[in-house]
Amino acid sequence: MPMDTRPIRFVHRGQIVQVDGAAPTRTLLDWLREDARCTGTKEGCGEGDCGACTVIVAEQAEQAPPSASATVAHGLSLRPVNACIRFLPTLDGKAVLTVEDLGSPGQLHPAQQALVDCHGSQCGFCTPGFAMTLAAVYERHTGAGTRPTRAALADDLAGNLCRCTGYRPILDAGERMFGLPRRGLDGPALQAVAAQLRTLAGDAPLHYAAPNVAAGGRTDHFHAPRTVDTLATLLEQRPDARLLAGATDIGLWVNKQFRDVGDLIWIGGVAELARIDVQPDGALRIGAGAPLEDAWAALAARWPTLSQVGLRFAGPPVRHAGTLGGNIANGSPIGDSAPVLMALDAGVVLRRGARTREMPLETFYVDYMKNRLEPGEFLQAIVVPAPMDRRHVRAYKISKRFDCDISALCAGLSLQIDGGLVSHARFAFGGMAATVRRAAGAEAAVLGQPWSETTLRAAMDALGTDFTPLSDLRASADYRLAAARALLRRLWLETREQSPLAATEVDVRAVEVTP
User: Fold this and answer.
1) How many beta carbons lie within 10 A of that of residue 102, not counting itself?
2) Mean pLDDT score, 390-418
């Protein structure tokens, strides 16, 4: 397959810029600060966790995948993402908006002005990231003619950390900005960006090459195919190349572990992989490249009880960049999606060249961070069966921090009761073993039994034989087992026949907090 290499081309500060010679893993943050000298965007954690580096990536709205979560303004689809783990080649054909694009000292953006008015900044290090997230929130709500609640603002800001002020004045600013004279992102400037993106849309698919100085001058390649067939051919021909989606994990390999990731094939330009469709049998098919924010919204639309854990699945900038397929293919035993999808009896579609095959997700993992993918094969889609009547679905997450934290334990639980007896049970746990897997003993303890406290206790006892958890920095083995048993009890409390707990009784967001 002949491939002509070319520079990376994207829009920044109203101009089409070209980047050549930079490593394929050079981050947007490093380029902004060291090459473009736009130092408003800050580096904090360097791993997509603190939000100090938040920027907005813009695409043509008509070219971007359909999404209920992206903000659409002036013909552009806007998503806040972390610049510290965003590799430069993934910006090809897109535009980058930074804090320098929001306003000027004489005419601040409402998000900036509100932060000033509400004293939402002390040291100021995190403030550009907060301003960018708030600007995206402002555009989304002013475009729709709505205003967010204070709780919704807290969820929008879950990917931004402040170490000085606490969040009260920042949330105050988020509310206040909607009462200021309306002045969003510069409309004419965004329309000009949209025109520039239409020009970039005529570029050939990106095949980029640059020398790897650390590897003795070896040339590293970055490929960005635009069709799933091209992707399949590329990977079959280059089985040693690494697939890249949102870089929310691979970005840390580079930034924190200094790993040499070699040649990369990026799936972010394959529109087919970003699609989320309902199949004729009612199953939900989620392309492996669908942003996590969109994929989880589709799941929560069918099973509303999943919405709360979705808000705690990383922070919004990570959910906008990362993909559900990436989280599944990564295979971390503490990943938040696999337990829930196993509880829903999801399957995976794998592809190698022209061949596809399907298997249940629960059989996909074989050991710690190992799966059944063959060389040259990739995850193409996740398929989730249609909802069943009378089936209870719950997802629970235990972590040290409520928002934007890695799980110590995650549970996906599905239960159906017919005629007073349990007719279906799927209990899947992450953080309890080397892989995410089902609790076979606990399931067997409840099947065919009345959903009573006696049955619950039998299932809780069975967890001790289902799993032998490890102790690590996030939780001890004893804590994990005790917490898993407690989550089964919570399931029972919410689904028991007599006096089940109402949703408001188990949702911290239902508590009114007076600022």
Assistant:
1) 23
2) 93
